Amino acid sequence: MTAMTLQSISSSDIASVRQSHPQAFGSTFSTITRWAIWLSVIFYVIGSLYYFEVYRLLDASGRALNLIAAFFNWEDMGEWQYRQIYIGIAQTLGMAFLGTLLGTVMALFIGFFAARTTMPFVVVRQIVRRILDILRGVDQLVWGLVFVRAVGLGPLAGVLAIAVSDTGTLSKLYSEALENVDRKQVEGIRSTGAGPLKIARYGYLPQVLPIFISQSLYFFESSTRSATILGLVGAGGIGMIIIERFRANLFDQVAFVVLNVLVCIFVIDWLSKKIRARLIGETSH
Would 32 be classed as within a structural domain? Predict the structure, then answer.
């Protein structure tokens, strides 16, 4: 078979190839559709920018620069009430730890009822999954408002909000991990005549426990940031101090508090990595 040169290709040859392979040449309809989609996206983006008044950023640029400058203009540092700030940070870390711990413990049990491999009854499994959808679908900030209303201001509301939200998400992640275990080990335990509890303990947990630990450590880091936000709605912790300083226009103290929170998150991330490496066997590259 010889390749045709450009000079030897005729209009009839092109028409023949176009007829035998129409998808290679495209069509007028597909071209119009593609351009219509692109134009719709472009007009939608432009319309969204106008609707949300993004152009106001130009008017606020001066105020924004002044605000940023205020963050780094630290004055009267001797009167910053450091004890109150660090007590708030300690409350935030305690809220995140206790909330994640409660969520992990509850998810450890609920996950078995939501997994297809450990819960054979479809009705029970679907009910549990729908409840988890509700827990996971409501934002953590909304849970914070609910529990502030229920138990009053303070860290308890933040702990409960984190625990409920983490339970919904961790239970889903745990159930997915349980559905992907090696069935040979489970069947080996079952063949010895072990009951459901022993099958879960010796067949499932040894395989999924490293995943559970890793996910809970990640959620502890995430909950630390969430606990900071929950304080803004009255759930205790450093968030209440941040909102108080904002209202008083003490932006330099806000910057100091945020920097301390960032340092705590960096330390938690470093410790989490060390714990995962020790318990799970992760190696550095």
Answer: no
119-178 pLDDT per residue, tens: 888 899 899 999 999 988 888 888 888 888 888 888 888 899 999 999 999 999 998 888
Query: Cβ-count burial of 190 within 10 angstroms (0-12 exposed, 13-18 middle, 19+ buried)?
Result: middle
Cα–Cα dist 128/123, whole Å: 9
CATH number of the domain bearing residue 187: 1.10.3720.10
Query: Is there a domain that residue 223 lies in?
Result: yes
d(CA 102, CA 49): 42
Gyration radius of the chain over CA positions: 29
Domain count, the chain: 1
248: helix, strand or coil: coil
Query: Helix, strand, coil proportions of the chain in percent (round to 5)?
Result: 80, 0, 20
The residue segments making up the domain with residue 270 are 99-279
Could you tell me if residue 85 is inside a domain?
no
Assigned domain for 49 exists: no
pTM for this predicted structure = 0.73
Q: Which amino acid is at 116?
A: R
Could you tell me the CA-to-CA distances from 25 to 17, 18, 30, 87 in Å, in that order?
9, 7, 10, 69
Cα separation, 22 vs 25, in Å, equals 6
d(CA 206, CA 152): 41
DSSP assignments along 102-159, one per residue: HHHHHHHHHHHHH-TTT---HHHHHHHHHHHHHHHHS-HHHHHHHHHHHH-SSHHHHH
Please measure the distance between the N-terminal and C-terminal CA atoms of the chain and give it in whole angstroms. Answer: 52
